[in-house]
Amino acid sequence: MRWTPVSGSPQLQLQRHLTRQSSSRGMLAARFARPKTHNNARMLHFQGPSWSGTTFNPNLGRKTTPRSRAWAFPVAASALAIFSFGLTTYATSQSLHAEAPPEESLPKIRFAEVREHGIGAKSIWVTRGTKVYDITDWIEAHPGGEVILRAAGGSIDPYWKLFTIHQKQDVYDILESYLIGVIDPQDLVNGQLPTDDIDDPFQTDPKRDTRLLVHSNRPCNAETPGPQLSAFITPNPLFYVRNHLWVPQVAEPEEHKLTIELVDGTEKIYTLRDLRAKFPECKIHATLQCSGNRRSHMSATKHATGLQWDVGAIGTAEWSGVLLRDVLADAGVNVNPHPSIDPEEKTGDVVRHAQFIGAETYGASIPISKALASDGDVLLAYSMNGEPLPRDHGYPLRVIVPGTVAARSVKWLSRVVLSPEESPSQWQRRDYKCFGPNVQAAGVNWDRGKSIQEMPVQSAITSLQEISGHVPEYISGRGRIYWLDDDHIALEGYAFSGGGREIVRVDISTDGGRTWQQAELLGESDGSGRDGKGDAARKGSKCWAWKRWKCDIPKMDAAIGGEFVVKATDESYNTQPESYMATWNFRGNLTSAWQRVPYAPTKEIRGLVP
Prior knowledge:
Blueprint: H1 10-20, H2 25-33, E1 44-46, E2 54-56, H3 79-83, E3 108-109, H4 111-115, E4 125-128, E5 131-134, H5 136-139, E6 154-155, H6 157-162, H7 169-176, E7 179-183, E8 213-216, E9 221-223, E10 241-242, E11 257-261, E12 267-271, H8 272-278, E13 282-289, H9 295-301, E14 314-323, H10 324-330, E15 353-358, E16 363-367, H11 368-372, E17 379-384, E18 387-388, E19 398-400, E20 413-419, H12 426-431, E21 458-467, E22 474-475, E23 481-482, E24 488-496, E25 503-509, E26 517-518, E27 520-521, E28 547-554, H13 555-561, E29 563-570, E30 595-598
Helix pairs in contact: 2-7
EC number: 1.7.1.3, 1.8.3.1
Protein name: Nitrate reductase [NADPH]
Pathway: Energy metabolism; sulfur metabolism
C-alpha cells in the first residue's frame, strides 16, 4: 500500500500511514522496537558459550531468569558493547526488517524544527542522513542509555560512526520504526545536511600540550615523547592520553554522582562532595600503561592492528582519592573477607566482578578480589599530582586500578556495578585480549581469550645521549657531576611490572644479548626520582610504580654491537622474552620483548648530543 499524505503533524501523518499497514512486516518490527514501559520493554537474546538461551532486560538492570547466571545489564552499559555479543532478536528469534514509506511521500521537516527537539524538549528528534526520527520512546530502553541524547536535536551520524556496531541492518530497522519525515530540501546542500549543521562530538575536548606525539585526533590518542619520561613523576600536561570516545563536560564537579549497584540490585549514590567528606583520603604512586604500549615495535616484525604506540603510552602519577573498598563497605558490602568466588556456584548470586561505567559509556571490570583486597589500593581518584584530575584524565572522578592494564582504570566514573559477570562492553570482552601468534582476527572466538588484567614485565630506553670525556666537568640532567676519562653513552629508561611486583634488575647489552651489564635503579621520592631513598618514599601497599634506571657505557663498547638491548626482571623473577614473535598477537597487545635501539656513533663528540 502506498502512503498518501494527510493533514496533521509529521508524527500523526506517519502514524496514520502505519496504521493502514498494520499487517505489514515493518509494522510488526515497529511494535517490537517501541517499548513504552518497563513492563513491556524489549528483551535481548544473547548467544555465546556462557549466555546461550539467556534473556536480558536492559531497562530493569536486574536478573530476569531465576537461578541462572543471566543478568540484565544496567542502562548505562554501552550500546556498542551489548550489540557486539550476538544480538539476534527483539522479542522474536529472527530479524524483522521495517519497510519505510517512500521518501518522496514523507513529511518535509525544516532542520530548524529538528533543533527545537533537543534535550529538554517534550519529544526528542534526531536525523540520520536526510531522515528525521522521533526517538522519545526509545531513549529509556536504548541499550546505550542516555548517551543517545548527545545527538538530540541533531544528527546521529557522527556518533554511529564511532559506535560502528550500529552499522547493522537490525539496528537500522529499529531506527526506521521511529521515522517521522525527511529534511526539507531547502536545508540540504547537494542532497546532504551541510557540515556546519552536523555537531562534532569532540568539539568541547580540551586543548593538549603540543609536545605530545599524536596518533589520532578524534578521539585523542597521544603519547609522551621519550625524553619527557625522564622523571619518576610524569607531569600532567605530558601524561599520555588514551581516549576511546569524547571527553565529557561536567558543570558542577562536586555534585558529580557515583552510583554503587549491589548484587541484589539496590543502589547507593554518592556525590564527589560526599566522597571527600565521608572517607579518609589515600595517596598512591601508580604507573598506568596502555596495553598497546610499544605496539610499533611488534609491528616492525609483523604488523599488528591498533594505534602504533612507541615507548610513551605509559606514565606515573601521584593519585589522590578514596579507597573503593571503603566506599563499598559503606554501601553494605562485606569486604572482609570478600564474597565467595566459588567456580562451581550456580545461582548467579555470587559477586565475581566490579564493573565500572564512565559518563561517555566506556565500560570495563576487574575481579572482585582485586577491588576488595586490603592491599589492592583500588582508588576512586579525584586528584593527579596534587591537582584536580585534568579533563583528559577523568575529571572529576576516575578509578585507578594499580598494577593492572590502564584500560580498567575507567575515567569519568559514574557507576560501579557488583556482578557475577565481567563488564559486557567490547573493551572488556574483545579489544583487550591476546591470542596465540598463529591466530588471526577473522573468525576468532573472543570468548576463548582471557581479558587482560595485570601487566607483564616491561622496559624501554627513553633517552640516549653522548657525553664527551674531554669536557672537564659535565653536569647532567641527573643532578650529579661526572668526570669521565672516556667518551660515554648515557642511557636512561623505565622498567615496570604489573601486580605490584617490584623491578629488581635491569640488564643492558651492547652485543645483541651475548653479554650483559646491570643498570642503576634510581630513587623514587622526589620529582626527578633520583634522591636514592627508594622504597621509603613509595606511596601504596605495593610497588605500583615503575623504576627509572640509568646506565653509562663507554663509547668504544657501544660502537661494537651497533645497538643497545634492554630487558628487566621483577621480584618474582619474571623477565621479558627475547623475541616479538613469541608473544605476537593480531591486536598487538602486551608488547614486552627486549627493546633494541640501533646506535651509530658520531664521528666527533662535542659535549652533549641529544
